[in-house]
Amino acid sequence: MKYIELVNNLLKNEVSKHEQLVVFGQNVSAGSCIGGMTRDLSVPKTGKIINSTNSENSLCGFGFGMMINDVSSIFFMKQLDFLLLGIDHLVNTYNLIRNHENNASFTIFPIVMDNGFQGLQSSSNNFADFCSIARIKGYTITNKIDAERIISSKLVSPGFRIITISQRMFKDEIIIPEELIYVNEENDVFQYNSGNDVTIVCFNFSFPYGQQMVNILRENNLKCSFFNVNSPTPTNWVEIINDVIKTKKIIIIDDSKSENLNCYALLTDIYDKVKLDKKIILKRNINDSEWLNPIDDQMNINYQQIVNDLAG
Amino acid sequence: MTELKSLSEKILRIRLSQMMVNENYKEGQFKIPIHLAFGHETFAVAINEIMDDEDKLILTHRNIAYNLARLGKLRPIVDEYFLKSSGLDAAKSGSMNLINPSKGIIYTSNILGNNFSVAVGIAMSLEIKQKNGITIVLGGDGSLEEGSFHESILMFKSLNLSGLLIIENNEWSMATKISERRIPIDLETFTKSYGVKYVQFSGNDPIDYVQELKKLKELSKKNNELICIELMVNTLGDWIMTNDQNPNGKFINYHSGPAPTVDVKKCPALIRENNSDPIFVLMDLLGLDDLNKLSDKIRSELEEEMK
């Protein structure tokens, strides 16, 4: 099953359960249904699906307005950069709501344009910045386990959050991790492997790179712990720190284009607790204007070099 | 006459309440910015008169007259301005975001044009919850310049939602007149292009305002349609600023802060001697003697409340 098919199936299942739920967005029930993400969604008769106008700022206010009067909603959005138009509401409107008692749910569900080929739009692979601006909870969906956990627990749940999926992974086969060893209470730090040789931590949508790293290290008789941080901003990652205290070696992969890389916040917390023997940070190298052009901006990781580095 | 007297009492109460707030403000007692609304009292009372339990009122930073009208008391609002836990919103909102959900004021925004789209969402929530209420949202003439004004009208109409969209046109945005910052906007033509009915209010006659608003509210509910009301209003409290740059004095229309030329000791609370002042209109409708008596009674009640 493809990544986007799984997401669509999980969304269909979840929205069908909630009474008085309003689902809205541009093309949410028309045309391509946002690349198949929202195809065939159906809500109970007490709710509504609205194929909306192209008014991103006001659509954010619309969702918050329903939330204020105790009606839950989901705003599906084709591209994360469209949300730039709604930042006033993310900050000012949300601040008023969360300063008062409220039990409704509002989720904005955009697609992060992280495949590079859309040029300037793809420079906005910076989910962390949207969340950081008003301390908004955010979640990335990267594999079958986190998709199921996050969509079932967060999509319609009291409060406001942003859940994102990756454009780059749309047509990839969904990755099914072998097992889930640990997940924190917030459902935004997942552990999939445990080992004593090195701790691997992935951020943003870099989970597939991390999974590949795990497999290659295993082939070279290196056992690693593997975590994925699904929050774009600092969260409860105490289990990662405990693991690094054990391994004293860390590989971090962060494919975000934000200047506020969440991995640095984790490293700061780790430095407080342990002196590292090895630290490998794999992130985007944005040195020139090329990152603004339409390009394939997959990360090129030399896995064998990392194996050699760890072995040495 | 009974209805007129009742409305007049409410209008006077808001005027005198604001004057008392202004006196505190002039003495520098508030740490938060407050946007007084001298001149807006009659319309605020009329809105209060037409609101039912399930109606929702969405306000702007200049919300004091509406909050006073809905609450009918001064003390909790002044306590909020003093950021006391006994304040109307337990010191969470201050002035520019002051809400009172128990009276239908469920959202107030300090951001120009921000509240229009929130109002569309609230209107949708009333439909989803099958409530009989209507959404009433206010903005100033400055908010017409925001994209959200256009977007929200489009959404109201596209979704067939009822609502009253009220534009308080005082011809000023902060310290600039409309003519100093943009070309004129013909709001009637603008709203007509969206198929939105437009009505203009002016003159501060309380009976007329209430009757007309009642009709428009029923029409909006009956047809599930948005109606735009342009309220021609003067925000009173202007003054002449004299400094090195303006040695001959410059006219400053009241925007926020204390209104230095408004004096609480004046009776019956008159600020300007024409129809732009609701109190001047009441003088004409009630007669000066009755208005003075009513003013003395309310002033005494407010002083007792604020002891």
Describe the fold and architecture.
The complex is a heterodimer of chains A (312) and B (307). Chain A has 312 residues and is of the alpha/beta class. Chain A has two domains: 3-166, Thiamin diphosphate (ThDP)-binding fold, Pyr/PP domains (Rossmann fold), CATH 3.40.50; 182-311, Rossmann fold (3-Layer(aba) Sandwich), CATH 3.40.50. Chain A contains nine helices and twelve strands. Chain A has helices at 3-15, 56-68, 87-98, 127-132, 144-154, 207-219, 238-247, 262-273, 303-311, and strands at 22-25, 48-51, 73-77, 105-112, 137-140, 159-166, 182-183, 189-193, 198-203, 224-229, 249-254, 278-283. In chain A, the strands form two sheets. Chain A has a six-stranded parallel β-sheet. Chain A has a six-stranded mixed β-sheet with strand order 7-8-10-9-11-12, with helices on both faces. In chain A, helix 8 (262-273) links the parallel strand 11 (249-254) and strand 12. In chain A, helix 1 (3-15) packs parallel to helix 5 and helix 2 (56-68) runs parallel beside helix 3 (87-98). The longest helix of chain A has 13 residues, at 3-15. Chain A starts with a helix and ends with a helix. With 307 residues, chain B is of the alpha/beta class. Chain B has a single domain, classed as Rossmann fold (3-Layer(aba) Sandwich). Helices cover 43% and strands 14% of the residues of chain B. Chain B contains eleven helices and ten strands. Chain B has helices spanning 2-26, 41-50, 64-71, 75-81, 114-128, 147-158, 178-181, 187-192, 206-223, 278-286, 288-305; strands spanning 56-59, 105-108, 135-140, 163-169, 172-173, 176-177, 197-201, 226-232, 239-241, 250-252. In chain B, the strands form three sheets. A six-stranded parallel β-sheet of chain B has the order 2-1-3-4-8-7, with helices on both faces. In chain B, helix 1 crosses helix 3, helix 1 (2-26) runs antiparallel to helix 10 and helix 1 packs across helix 11 (288-305). The model of chain B has no long low-confidence stretch (mean pLDDT 95). The A-B interface holds A 20, 22, 46-48, 50, 52-53, 55, 57-71, 73, 88-89, 92-93, 96, 99-100 and B 56, 89, 92-93, 97, 99, 101, 106-111, 114-126, 128-129, 147-148, 151-152, 154-155, 158-159.
